[in-house]
Amino acid sequence: VQDHVAAALRGAIASGRLGHGYLLTGPRGVGKTTAARILAMALNCERRETVTPAGEPCGECDNCLRIWNGSANLDVLEIDAASNRGVDDARELRERAMYAASQEGHHKVYIVDEAHMLTREAWNALLKILEEPPPGVVFVFATTEPERMPPTILSRTQHFRFRRLTEEEIAFKLRRILEAVGRE
């Protein structure tokens, strides 16, 4: 429902002009982590060349299902920074990012949820890889508190702001879902 974000990310994937770092911000429950997973799916979808519109994941191939369900995946790592916030965790992440994706044409995607919880030392450990990322590596930081993010990180990421949906938007989406499944 965050159409402004979806359109921008879909366009970046379709045109091959993908950034190496994204910052997704907004209140709880507005789809930041879900958007990060969908981005990871689109970058690693086995059928992405045949999906319409371009830049979307199919949602049905093995890679898409594994990412969506949070199953083990060599190319996508989701980290909760609230419990993995230290410098050693960041150094391990940095070292893992140096390895290529498991398949040609795929991307290593690191989703860092609650990113504002990382320590200053952890951010310093990640800074070098954000300045000079290896090819095919994408970092997605999700946070409810962007003001707690270091300026050096903010300047190296593309920032997308998520907003709460209005009651009208929620009702509209629910109607479309019900129509799609043939229910009133």
Summarize this entry quickly.
The protein has 184 residues and is of the alpha/beta class. Helix content is 40%, strand content 15%. Helix 2 (32-44) packs antiparallel against helix 3 (62-69).
Number of strands: 5
What topology, given as strand order, has the largest sheet?
2-3-4-1-5
Q: How large, in whole angstroms, is the Cα Rg? A: 17 Å
Structural class: alpha/beta
Share of β-strand residues: 5-15%
Provide an overview of this structure.
With 184 residues, this protein is of the alpha/beta class. The protein is 40% helix and 15% strand. The protein has helices spanning 3-15, 32-44, 62-69, 87-96, 120-131, 151-154, 167-180; strands spanning 21-25, 76-80, 108-113, 137-143, 158-161. Strand 3 (108-113), helix 5 and strand 4 (137-143) form a beta-alpha-beta unit. Helix 1 runs parallel beside helix 2 and helix 2 (32-44) runs antiparallel to helix 3 (62-69). 33% of the residues are buried. The model has no long low-confidence stretch (mean pLDDT 87).
